[in-house]
Design brief:
The chain has 236 residues and is α/β, with parallel strands linked by helices. The protein is 33% helix and 19% strand. The protein folds into 2 domains: 169 residues, Formyl transferase, N-terminal domain (Rossmann fold, 3-Layer(aba) Sandwich); 44 residues, no CATH class.
């Protein structure tokens, strides 16, 4: 008697992982892929117009979307295709939605670093909050240290919830809501980087400590239509 043919294996769940190019985004992707190798993972790093155009010209059929430290705005039709199975890890507490949140939180001297897991919606940082991870932050620390803690918490939050995200069992574990009036854009960030000679010494120092980092000289002054960026002492 011949053995019956083996049942066909279930197709792998296709997961699109949208992220930037930072080391912490690469770490999060590798942790996710290593923990759940049965899924078909695709990391989507879409920083340039060319990369975005090439991606959008493809046909896509993901089962699930994860967004992590991702600056690309996922199109509504792709969100619709996964029928609510799109999740983002925002690298800040829900009091600070939008772009570059750690800079604004640090400027406000917000006492906690954090990360927020939420369902993705057509509007950025507007979907249902599922979980929040937070840690008290020493106000004497730097904005880079604040950012790094937010990033660390983002990785932990993703890893802790990825199993229930993938199997569809995830439920809200937080009653927190977005502070919508505090949502910031890249234009808001640029505005806060501008120094005006009429500002007080304290305000100038606060902006320098909040919006300049060792990696990026963001703070500038405009004189007669020319933009001059601040260089820290000792820089060439």
């Amino acid at each position: 008697m011949m053995a019956s043919p083996a049942a066909a294996a279930e197709p792998a769940q296709v997961v699109y992982f949208f992220s930037g190019r930072s080391p912490v985004a690469a770490l999060a992707f590798e942790k996710a892929r290593a923990a759940y190798p049965e899924c078909a993972w695709r990391q989507c790093v879409l920083r340039t117009a060319e990369e975005q155009g090439a991606f959008e010209a493809e046909n896509h059929a993901p089962d699930l979307i994860v967004s992590f430290l991702n600056g690309y705005i996922v199109k509504p039709d792709l969100l619709d295709a996964v029928e609510g199975r799109a999740f983002n890890v925002h690298p800040a507490p829900p009091e600070y939605p939008g772009r570059d949140p750690w800079h604004f939180a640090y400027y406000d001297r917000f006492p906690r670093a954090g990360a927020t897991l939420h369902r993705m919606a057509a509007r950025v940082d507007d979907g249902e909050i599922l979980a929040v991870a937070e840690r008290d932050f020493d106000p004497d620390g730097s904005v880079t240290e604040y950012r790094d803690v937010c990033h660390q918490l983002s990785v932990e939050l993703l890893v802790d919830n990825l199993g229930s995200i993938l199997d569809g069992s995830i439920q809200p574990r937080s009653t927190r809501t977005w502070r919508a009036q505090a949502k910031r854009s890249r234009r808001d960030f640029s505005r806060m980087c501008e120094i005006d000679p009429s500002m007080s010494p304290d305000e100038v120092a606060r902006r320098l400590s909040s919006f300049n980092t060792p990696e990026h000289d963001n703070v500038y002054v405009i004189i007669h239509g020319h933009k001059f960026f601040y260089k820290r002492p000792g820089q060439v």
